[in-house]
Request: fold
Amino acid sequence: MGVFISSLRVPKSGSTPRECEDAVAAFPPADPETWLTDPVSVAISDGASESLLAGEWAALLTDSVVDAVRDDQYLLHDDRHVASALVDAAVQWRRWVGEYVARRVGNGRPIAWYERPKLDRGPHATVLAARFDHHPASLSTSWTAAALGDTCLFHTRGARLLHAFPLESAAAFGNSPGLVNGFSHDHALLAHHVQTASGTADQGDQFFLCTDALAAWFLAETERGGHPGETLCNFTRSGDLAGFETWLGDLRSAGAMGNDDVTVVHVDLG
Amino acid sequence: MTYAAEISRSNPTCFLFLVDQSASMGDPIGGEVPQRKADVVADAINRLLTELSVKCAKEEGVRDYFHVAVIGYGHAVGSAFTGTLAGRDLVPLSEVAENPARVEERRKKVPDGAGGLVETASSFPVWLDPVANGGTPMCRALSYAESLVSRWLAEHPGCFPPIVLNLTDGESTDGDPTAAASTIPLQVSTDGSVLLFNLHVSGAGASPTTFPDSDASLPDAYSRTLFGMSSPLPPHMRSYAAQQGFGTSDATRGFVYNADIASVVQFLDIGTRATDLR
Reply:
């Protein structure tokens, strides 16, 4: 029993890779060539375009949450434990942003008046975390996931979509998803908005973790009777970033996908 | 579908402010705190430019999702920017943000969280000073806006439709502005007609009104004329107005009477909104 993990990340058209505000963290690190038999923890996040430092917050959030999920097998079963992990990330953010402000002053480019309101308000990002534990005796893999916002997990078997989490239809996506704020310490509020899911997978099943534009396309394609997982496998299994970018460009030009940062993590059970 | 075009650096749109700077703007508006109309519209423009700059701010600077013009009309019609931007029409928003004429410190009272108020200081960038001088050539100003928008659309045919926001006491001295206003929505991008909104500052004393759907409660012919000139809010803007607590219907127009119009910036989509959990 084991998995391959691969990920692809593409900025919105007109932005540079450095400006992409999606982030991924995985333990062990994603590598489409390596068969992983130990438990796997993955987190994916989508920073809100209107925020300042949204990409940096998304990166810190995924790193912090993956560490927490790796260290606690049961964390994703309980929304209160997930909320604690999010508050821990916010504590780290406060430290990070203090150092950032000092760096800006040191570099002779202090925070400008137009940055200050957003800096004080804190950045916003979605988060989805998942953990996969293998059970050789039963030839199965148990999975747990938690989400806040519209970053989604899809579990497929062959051409069938078995599970879509937390959103289940293309129509459910909007412009104001639930978001984790970098200064949020309201444990109860976060727990209220966190959703959790779990299940069991067979060898050969596939999981796709997608930020919103790709997730909305995935569900729309499924609703049209298509097999989006098979399409994504063409790029993720070979790590074909250039092909993925071209394919996304065609979808965006045709109006079949919004122009947004896109990230997919493929957890491939062989 | 209209009013759905992405607003981005590769597909920016423009925002034109028309500011009445005529002598009658030296008169006070109604309300508990008497203020000169000229002060009210200058503050409104400076706040709108601040809101727009903050909305588009990223860590590397302000992104040029918008190009902005501030056109004054009074003794003359033309750019009303002061400071280093003086004399310029459409300016990329990043340049606007980097070049206020000055940044004042203003004090305001905010809730202290315990039922009281506490005074705090905040930065208030200024690009436009109050002016009250000369007649009110609103028809010429609207024609000037139409020509700027027309040039913009020739270069950006697929943009989110430009927005023209006219701030005035409504007392046009070069004729009925209705005809000049009616040509502005005839300018179109592939995404829809140019939007004309109006902020009416008045001493007539009626209740402040934001985004009404009829002119029934408006106090005089000036306000009814400006209401009639204003574009209906596109559906997604009506939806944002409703989220902000304003009553809306299909007939809701981009018109505000003696009230804050800064909320219009929140009607503009530049990507995922940074909203807090509730």
Q: What stands out?
A: Residues 37-55 of chain B form the longest helix (19 residues). The domain at 13-267 of chain B is CATH 3.40.50.410 (Rossmann fold).
